[in-house]
Design goal:
The protein is of the alpha+beta class. The chain has ten helices and seven strands.
């Protein structure tokens, strides 16, 4: 898994280097050099942004922030050349900063996923919800379910608990609704996880009317081989969340944490 991230990153940055060769035309005033460079960077950025939407591969997904930061830094070379000295010093500082951030993001992504496969990087509650299911041709759709053993008042503490334990990437608590977003990859850190949310997330929305709307991320559902029936999978997820909510509301945080991190169905 980690080696795939490194290889994909190196390939991407190699294409950037090819674009840097094209920018040499800038020094001689040849516009084709600028055009080829900008086109190379833009094409790579577009391709790397589209790839996580069409592939369930976690390696491509977790490398995206680092690669995009590298491409952003590379793109600033054009601005630096146009400005000329001494104003381009600030731009060169920005380039260096973006490349450093890119390296940090790639290293953090690599170490966070080192030695793990795609399934082990999936949220433990999503894995545990596979209990009693089997592979089906069903696709995930938003499903509305009533509360079984919880009350709406317990969902705000639940959301805060999941956010604190980094079991939810984004939690929004309102007077009438609590929204919990779980990204495709767990364990990346808050900054990287939030950056990757637009590429897919499992969304749980609990409302004050006593209902929960569950939308499982399609990439994660495919990765888990479409456990179904889908409504059973969602009921299992709701049951786990309500059990954790009960422990949290009663102050049994250690038990809630143990239950949340249990991956194998009991």
């Amino acid at each position: 898994m980690a080696w795939t991230i490194v290889v994909s990153s190196v390939v991407g940055l190699t294409f950037v280097a090819m674009g840097v060769v094209a920018v040499a035309g800038l020094s001689s005033g040849r516009e084709p050099g600028t055009f080829v460079y900008v086109l190379t960077v833009a094409a790579l950025a577009a391709a790397y942004t589209v790839a996580p939407f069409v592939k369930d591969d976690h390696a491509i997904l977790v490398a995206w922030p680092g690669v995009m930061l590298a491409l952003a830094g590379s793109g600033l070379w054009i601005i630096a050349d146009v400005l000329g000295p001494p104003r381009n010093v600030i731009v060169y500082f920005g380039i260096a900063l973006l490349l450093v951030l890119s390296s940090i993001a790639l290293v953090k992504s690599t170490f966070a996923t080192l030695g793990q496969d795609a399934v082990s990087l999936t949220h433990p509650l999503l894995l545990k919800s596979m209990k009693g299911t089997h592979s089906t041709p069903e696709g995930p759709v938003p499903l509305t379910l009533p509360f079984v053993s919880s009350k709406f008042a317990s969902w705000a503490p639940l959301g805060n608990f999941l956010r604190k334990e980094r079991l939810a990437d984004l939690v929004v608590v309102g007077r009438r609704k609590v929204t919990i977003r779980i990204g495709r990859v767990i364990g990346l850190g808050r900054f990287l996880s939030i950056m990757l949310l637009p590429f897919g997330a499992t969304i749980i929305r609990a409302n004050s009317r006593g209902f929960v709307v569950i939308s499982v991320d399609p990439h994660t559902y495919n990765l888990l081989e479409r456990p179904g029936p889908y409504d059973q999978y969602c009921r299992n997820l709701l049951g786990s969340l309500e059990d954790i909510a009960t422990d949290v509301s009663r102050g049994r945080l250690a038990e809630a944490k143990q239950m949340a991190f249990t991956r194998v169905p009991s």
